[in-house]
Amino acid sequence: MPPHLPAQLEFLLMCDRLKAVSRSTFLHDGSRPENSAEHSWHLALMALTLAEYAAPGTNLPRVVELLLTHDLVEIHAGDLHFAASPEAHARQARAETEAAAQLFGLVPEPQRATFHALHAEFEAAQTPEAQFARALDALQPLLLTWAGGGLGCAMREPDLTAARLRALKEPRLRAFPALWTLAQTVLADAVEVGTLPA
Amino acid sequence: MPPHLPAQLEFLLMCDRLKAVSRSTFLHDGSRPENSAEHSWHLALMALTLAEYAAPGTNLPRVVELLLTHDLVEIHAGDLHFAASPEAHARQARAETEAAAQLFGLVPEPQRATFHALHAEFEAAQTPEAQFARALDALQPLLLTWAGGGLGCAMREPDLTAARLRALKEPRLRAFPALWTLAQTVLADAVEVGTLPA
Hints:
Two copies of one chain form a homodimer.
Chain A: H1 5-15, E1 22-26, E2 33-35, H2 36-49, H3 60-69, H4 74-77, H5 86-104, H6 111-124, H7 128-147, H8 162-173, H9 177-193
Helix pairs in contact in A: 2-3, 2-7, 3-6, 3-7, 6-7, 7-9, 8-9
C-alpha cells in the first residue's frame, strides 16, 4: 500500500461526517434540513452551470475545489446561521481554525498545506475564485427556500425581512450582476406572494 | 436577467432532488442510507485527495466534473444496486438515457450538449478521466461499509461474499494499483473479522 494512503483513507472517512452536519436551510421540497455535504455538491454543480456569470479569467476548477472543501471544518466546528451575531461569527472563526488543524492534520504534507490553503483562500475572499464561490454560497439557500415557497420561513425565522436579507447578501453578490439580479428577483417575489415581510 | 438564467435555475432546482435519491450503501456510522448527492460530493473530494493514484496526465478537473454529474440521471431513473442482474442493468441504461434527455433538456444549447457529453463519457468508460472516476465510484461504498464494520451487511445483503465483490469490483479498479490494493485489503479484513463470508 502506498505510504500516504492509510492517512488519506482516515481523512476521507472523517469527511463522511459532513453528511451529518445539518444546515438551517431546508431542501426545496421542505422535507428536511439540508446537510453540508450535499450542500457542497449543489454549490459545485452551480459553479459548473453558472460559470458564464463569473468574472472573465476565473479559474473554474479552483472555484469547484473551494466549494467542495469550504464546509469541511464544520465536521468539528458545526454550522453557524448566516444571520448570527458578529460575536458568534468571531467565535465560529476561531473554532474553524482549530477544526482545520485537526482535520487537515490527518493527511501528510504537502497535502495538508493544500487543504489549509483552500480553506484560507475561501475565508479571505480576496481571489476572484473565492469571491465567486462565496457568491454561490450566499445565493443557494435563497433559491432553495424561495422555490419551496417558504422564504421568510415565518415559523423558523421570525425576524427575517427582505431588507435584512438584501443587506446580508449584497456584499457577496453585487460583484456578480446576474446572480445579484436573481437574488433580488427572488426576494421581491417572496414579498409579493406574502412569504417574507418587506 | 440574462436569457439563460431562468432555465438554469429550473435545472438547478430539479437537481436538488438528487438529495432524495437513496443508495444501498449506509453512511459509515450506520445511521442511515447515503443519498446520491452527498455520495457525488464524497467522490469529488476523493478525486482531489487521491489524485496521485490516477494515471499520469489525467485531467483532474474533468474527473471532478464527471463525478459531480454522473448520478444526476437518477433523479428520474432512480439508483440501481451494483450487483443487480444484467437485465436490470440494461433496463436501467435505457431509463437513464431517457432521464438524461429530460433533465439536460431543461438547459439550452450549448450547455445541454456539455451535460450530455459528461454523462456519455462516464458511461462509456473509455477516457482516463472516466476510468478514474468509475474506479472511485466502485471503491467508495466498500470503504464506507468496511469502516462501519458492516461489510457484507449480512441482514441487507445476504448473498454477498468477498469473492463476488472482488469479481464485481476488479474490472473498474485493477488499472489503479493503489486503489485495487486498498479494496483487496478492505475485503480481506472484512473476511478476517467475520463480517463478510469469503
